[in-house]
TrEMBL record:
The active site is at C334, H431. This is Cobyric acid synthase. InterPro entries: Class_I_gatase-like, CobQ/CobB/MinD/ParA_Nub-bd_dom, CobQ_GATase1, CobQ_N, CobQ_synth, GATase_3, P-loop_NTPase. The gene is cobQ. Keywords: Cobalamin biosynthesis, Glutamine amidotransferase. Belongs to the CobB/CobQ family. CobQ subfamily. Pfam families: CbiA (PF01656), GATase_3 (PF07685). The keyword Transmembrane does not apply. Pathway: Cofactor biosynthesis; adenosylcobalamin biosynthesis. Residues 255-436 form the CobB/CobQ-like glutamine amidotransferase domain. Residues 7-230 form the CobQ/CobB/MinD/ParA nucleotide binding domain. The keyword Amino-acid biosynthesis does not apply.
Length: 498
């Protein structure tokens, strides 16, 4: 049987660019004729995805799978941690909820998952020619390394060579490279075949003396300097929200505001709106930034009850109601749909929602994870559900938003969400709804007409086509700036007996 060669991408810190460079390697190997699969043993993220089999996984491995030209498979991300508080996460293992654990409990527990992680990795290794493994955070977290399952612990388990990625855009790149390598055990450092400096702006000649010195100091070669790329692909980490636009771009005609909830999840739902030529999409973190948007989106959240309390205490709950009264339309997605209602009940505790619609949500133990097809008005749409709540229309008078016709590939017939009587509010459990261009364009044109503007066609290019172009652009940049011949040669030296 075939055994795939592997390469692992680790970073000097979070948001160094590991996920994107791993996706680029996936596309390079695909273009070179190999069957390639991404892998990350443990992911911590509130952006997740539901596969065709109804399994939940991190979005980083989803866009890496897209770059590799294959369908997402939950084996690519066996462990997904979804923080619900600062001290606790929901542990999703092989696509299904395992249990909620606090930080110390999970730290003690995670080594018991290694045999199954290794087993699914071996399955992928037998089925493919190349595996691109992504690490998490930094391998220099010396307080965690004794029980590491995602950085050098994983590299050692599967005998993979490692590329270390350092982000020069944040500053201090040479210190981060030197410090990371200095804190590694000698046997781990020997596994690092090279360093990639990422997100460089300017003339590379200015770096040359520094590159020579850091190679001399560490004994590890610099195998590439990647330029700062303006890529339009999915972003998994909430760190990127700090760079998102917060003010209305007056060169655009439609103002769409997204409430930046403390426990916001799946902010990738909004990505397609940013592609439309008439849309200024902004994230509202402060009450003073809300103003009067044409459309207000209340996104998903990992902790609806906690975020309901936040909205009330911050004054945003009243401000959202005032915006709607003055004419803003509203779309609530998943947790945002739940927040539109009057009551949120969890066990013996109940908290008030925004009371924009006569809805009551009860939180249940079982998690719904489904990939669906549905009819919305005259549109066939695709999306996915991830929720643990059941929402009921107390009035019995609201129209449904969608008729679900397929669920995880099987025919079905059920209804999702609600639409207010005046069509100004939509609530739905369907993530990815804006990715359906015909439906979202109809919504945007309705906003235009309300403002006295004429309808436009907008961007009709499919999201898949647009992303595929970006992956090709990324791969070419890696060919131009990385020593890929060296990477191929080093990969062949590892993993023969693992």
């Amino acid at each position: 049987m075939n055994k795939a060669q592997a390469i692992m991408v680790q970073g000097t810190a979070s948001d160094a660019g590991k996920s994107v460079l791993a996706a680029g390697l996936c596309r390079v190997f695909k273009e070179d004729g190999y069957d390639v699969v991404p892998f990350k043993s443990q992911n911590m993220a509130l952006n997740s995805y539901i596969t065709a089999t109804g399994d939940e996984m991190g979005r980083a491995q989803v866009f890496q799978a897209e770059a590799a030209g294959i369908a997402p498979d939950v084996r690519m991300n066996p462990v997904l941690l979804k923080p619900s508080t600062d001290q606790q996460s929901q542990v999703v293992f092989l696509g299904k909820v395992l249990k909620d654990m606090n930080v110390l409990e999970y730290h003690d527990y995670k080594l018991t998952l290694l045999p199954q992680i290794k087993s699914v990795y071996d399955e992928l290794r037998q089925e493919n020619d190349r595996i691109v493994i992504e690490g998490a955070g930094s391998p220099a977290e010396i307080n965690l390394n004794d029980r590491d399952i995602v950085n050098m612990g994983m590299a050692k388990l599967v005998d993979a060579p490692v590329i270390l990625v350092a982000d020069i855009d944040k500053g201090g790149v040479f210190a981060s490279i030197y410090g990371t390598l200095a804190l590694m055990k000698p046997e781990d450092k020997r596994r690092v075949i090279g360093v990639v400096i990422n997100k460089f702006r300017g003339d590379k000649k200015l770096l040359e003396s520094g590159l020579e010195m850091i190679e001399e100091l560490t004994g590890v070669p610099i195998i590439g300097v990647m330029p700062y790329l303006s890529l339009d692909i999915d972003e998994e980490d909430s760190v990127v929200l700090s760079t998102k636009q917060t003010q209305f771009d007056e060169s655009k005609e439609l103002d769409i505001a997204v409430i930046s909830l403390p426990r916001m999840s799946n902010f990738t739902d909004m990505r397609s709106l940013e592609q439309q030529p008439d849309v200024s999409l902004r994230y509202v973190k402060k009450l003073s930034d809300l103003k009067q948007p044409d459309l207000l989106v209340i996104p998903g959240t990992k902790n609806t009850v906690e975020d309901a309390v936040y909205l009330k205490e911050s004054g945003l709950a009243k401000a959202i109601n005032d915006c709607h009264a003055r004419g803003s339309q509203i779309v609530g997605i998943c947790g945002g749909y739940q927040l539109l209602g009057e009551v949120l009940s969890e066990g013996s505790m109940s908290v008030p929602g925004l009371s924009l619609l006569p809805l009551e949500t009860t939180f249940l133990e079982e998690k719904v994870t489904t990939q669906v097809e549905a009819n919305v008005s005259k549109h066939l749409v695709k999306g996915y559900e991830i929720h643990m709540g059941e929402t009921r229309d107390k009035s019995g008078k609201l129209a449904s938003f969608a008729k679900i016709t397929r669920e995880n590939g099987q025919e079905t017939e059920r209804y999702d969400g609600v639409v207010s009587e005046d069509n100004s509010i939509v609530g739905t459990y369907l993530h990815g709804i804006f990715d359906n261009i015909s439906w979202s364009r109809e919504l945007l044109n309705r906003l235009r007409v309300n403002k006295g503007l004429t309808e436009i066609v907008g961007n009709t290019e499919s999201l898949e086509t647009q992303k595929d172009r970006e992956y090709t652009k990324l791969a070419q940049a890696m060919r131009d700036n990385l020593d890929l011949e060296f990477v191929y040669a080093e990969m062949a030296k590892y993993g023969k007996d693992s």
